[in-house]
Amino acid sequence: MLILRDLGKSYANGRRVLSGLNYRLEEGEYVAVMGESGVGKSTLLNLIAGLDTPDAGQILVDGVDIAALDDDAATLLRREKFGFVFQAFHILPHLTLLQNVALPLLLRREPDTRARQMLEAVGLGARAHDYPRQLSGGELQRVAIARALAHRPRLILADEPTGNLDPDTAREVLQLLRGEIKDNGAAAIMVTHSHAAAATADRVLTLSARGLHPADGQPA
Ligand SMILES: Nc1ncnc2c1ncn2[C@@H]1O[C@H](COP(=O)(O)OP(=O)(O)O)[C@@H](O)[C@H]1O
Ligand SMILES: [Mg+2]
């Protein structure tokens, strides 16, 4: 469902981060991406998410080159098919937790029932009417996960989703994430530094200057 073809990205300061990157993510496939800090993991997710543009290559989602879409069409496609768990992807401060999680549903004119269920699932059901400023970093991360999953996206992109969580909460959140991915037949790319988190994926890839490859000990 996602094809990365000869993808390249350099920053304005001339720093080449990704070059000639190829990968094909099948429907329903859940992969973890590991790799050294600064190698370009967040850049890769940002490109797929359309938060940044590649300077070479193509990103095909169900056969559509997202870089070739105009802004409105790209926004619609993302709203429809993608779920993001990005630390920098801010929860809106003036909305309650329930309103934040329900936003992807509201944009699709769907009822907020699933939003309530997802808040329950991340252990924040009782906090539905609180505001983000009343929460800890780890709690906010759980809100971001609930919101990313609320509309049952076909492609989930997660950048270190358990980075702020204690081990017990991380385990619960990963269980939820994997359950949702498998129940909904979604594909997912999770960037993580945690081997425990990566072990919940179907396969583990390493991003390096050579591109995306199976991690050591993983079948090719
Ligand atoms: N907006 C930017 N402008 C210039 N350089 C950037 C920018 N964003 C990231 N970089 C650089 O690109 C490299 C890859 O960054 P990033 O994708 O965040 O790595 P990772 O997530 O793997 O740690 C790093 O060297 C980083 O300093
Ligand atoms: Mg990063």
State the shape: globular
Task: Give the strand order, joined by hyphens, for the main sheet.
Answer: 6-7-8-3-9-10
- The low-confidence parts are none
| CATH fold description | Rossmann fold
Mean pLDDT: 91
CATH class: Alpha Beta
The kinds of small molecule bound in this structure are: adenosine-5'-diphosphate, magnesium ion
**In angstroms, what is the radius of gyration?**
17 Å
Major sheet description: 6 strands, mixed
Indicate how many domains the architecture comprises: 1
Q: Any guess at the CATH architecture?
A: 3-Layer(aba) Sandwich
Count of helical stretches: 7
Strand residue content: 25-35%
Superfamily (CATH H level) name: P-loop containing nucleotide triphosphate hydrolases
Listing every helix as H and every strand as E from the N terminus to the C terminus, the arrangement reads EEEHEEHEHHHEHEHEE
Derived structural class: alpha/beta
Count the strands?
10
CA distance, first residue to last residue = 19 Å
Helix content: 25-40%
GO molecular function: ATP binding
Protein name: ABC transporter ATP-binding protein
Keywords: ATP-binding, Cell membrane, Membrane, Nucleotide-binding, Transport
Organism: Noviherbaspirillum aridicola
